[in-house]
Specification:
single chain, about 260 residues, alpha/beta, Carbamate kinase, 8 helices, globular
């Protein structure tokens, strides 16, 4: 495999529903000699915990509105549940995984217009944008053959915590690490022209066509944010981004054979 450094981002639904399957694929990827970084979200876990705590869940165009109570649920679910589950499963499979939080530096996001949410700026609350990463630590771990498992929480300059969209973390971290490929593992088989028809998968998607899908309404819910952040990352220099449900190694070896590969 020509790819040497791969960042694999896992959605919370993937960890919840297919942990064993995905861990096996990550083990196989590590076995090829690739340097692998894993990042993850935890949306379903946050929603489930919020329900148990009696907290309302408010989503706008696929993005979570985060108040102080919800931020606590975010921390408990993403770090205490998803990060621990991933690290333990990878270690049980023989991979030296290192669970990490606090390596993403962030600042609070100002209200902004969001695709799919109307013309007015939206304030998502305690939500941040990455401003940097602890790259020396990540490079040290990769040089040792470890697999960093990065949670999508941001560390503000004042020591506070900010919720960050996991796709945004993955895309910006991919740029900062200058990876050869970024793989976004989701519950969907790729980008679809019709969300009700898996056969409408788009094997290869350029930036202009991707933006047209968003503008035309074909992309819905969480896929809007995923595509927006990913297309920006491709424009900024990430060589290729793969949106897949499974078959990570095949997606990298045969771009477009499974899922969708985003290219400039």
């Amino acid at each position: 495999m020509a790819v040497k450094t791969v960042l694999v981002k896992l959605g919370g639904e993937v960890v919840e529903e297919r942990l064993g399957e995905i861990v096996a694929e990550l083990v196989a990827l590590v076995g090829t000699g690739a340097r692998v970084v894993v990042s993850h979200g935890g949306g379903p876990q946050v929603t489930a915990l919020s329900q148990r705590l009696g907290l309302p869940t408010k989503m706008i165009a696929g993005r979570r509105v985060t108040d102080e109570a919800t931020l606590l649920a975010v921390q408990l679910a993403i770090v205490g549940q998803v990060n621990v589950a991933l690290q333990n499963a990878l270690r049980a499979a023989g991979v030296r995984a290192v669970g990490l939080h606090g390596v993403v530096e962030a600042k609070r996001r100002a209200p902004k217009v969001l695709a799919g949410a109307g013309p007015d700026p939206i304030d998502l609350g305690l939500v941040g944008d990455p401003t940097g990463f602890d790259l020396p630590l990540l490079h040290d771990l990769l040089a040792r053959g470890d697999v960093p498992v990065v949670a999508c929480l941001g560390r503000a300059a004042d020591g506070g915590v900010l919720n960050i969209n996991a796709d945004l973390v993955a895309n910006q971290l991919a740029r900062a690490l200058a990876v050869d490929a970024l793989v976004l593992v989701t519950s969907a088989p790729g980008v679809l022209r019709d969300v009700r028809d898996p056969a409408s998968r788009i094997p290869r998607l350029g930036v202009a066509e991707g933006r047209a899908l968003i503008a035309g309404g074909a992309a819905q819910g969480g896929m809007i944010a995923k595509l927006e952040e990913s297309l920006a990352a491709v424009e900024a220099g990430v060589p290729a981004i793969y949106i897949v449900k499974d078959q990570i190694a095949r997606a990298l070896e045969e771009p477009g054979a499974v899922g969708t590969v985003l290219v400039p």
